[in-house]
Design brief:
Blueprint (H helix, E strand, L loop, with lengths): L1 H21 L9 H11 L2 H19 L5 H20 L5 H30 L7 H41 L10
Length: about 180
């Protein structure tokens, strides 16, 4: 029972992220990769991997899975946790830390875009398997990349800022006033 109670924040976070994916939203504008980076930054290793993967699995149970793309997407999301772990090593140096978070989010979004669209080009019959089909695939995906990058940056900023503010607020100790009469 104690372990279940300790797991409630993780279960809540997984369900919130999955729930967001189930609600109407712009394509690829989701908190999943941001949660993976955040997990790598602040959470114990196993939790960092369970949070984004768990939220994907829960939502995909309702949305359905593509047996070609799903393993690729899940693998890329799990790899994104390492971006957060890399940025974590600079935690004591504010500007380096912020720069690593920002550049890591940009890099993770770009890598996700490049890999998923390459797999789409290879696996989907709507694209010809030549240079024109390759260019068409990536050109058609640009709006999705914009949304993914915006979502990653917005949600990651919200997660990190909220965590840091809560952490700072929880360390403030209120001293009682002593009055001597």
């Amino acid at each position: 029972m104690k372990r279940l109670i300790q797991s409630l924040p993780l279960i809540f976070a997984v369900l919130m992220i999955a729930g967001y994916r189930l609600l109407p939203h712009p394509w690829n504008f989701t908190p999943v990769c941001a949660a993976a980076i955040f997990g790598g930054l602040y959470l114990p290793r196993w939790v960092a991997f369970v949070l984004p993967l768990g939220s994907m699995i829960v939502a995909d149970l309702f949305l359905g899975m593509d047996w070609v793309m799903t393993p690729v997407i899940y693998t890329l999301i799990l790899m994104t946790v390492f971006v957060g772990q890399w940025a974590r090593t600079a935690y004591g140096r504010k500007w380096v830390y912020a720069l690593r978070i920002f550049s890591g989010a940009l890099g993770a979004s770009a890598f996700f875009f490049l890999v998923t669209n390459f797999v789409s080009w290879l696996s989907l019959p709507i694209y010809t398997k030549d240079w024109n089909g390759f260019v068409q695939c990536y050109t058609m995906a640009i709006p999705f990349f914009r949304n993914a990058l915006a979502g990653d940056l917005l949600f990651l900023t919200a997660f990190v800022a909220s965590y840091e503010l809560l952490k700072k607020a929880s360390t403030v100790v209120v001293q009682p006033k002593l009055s001597i009469n």
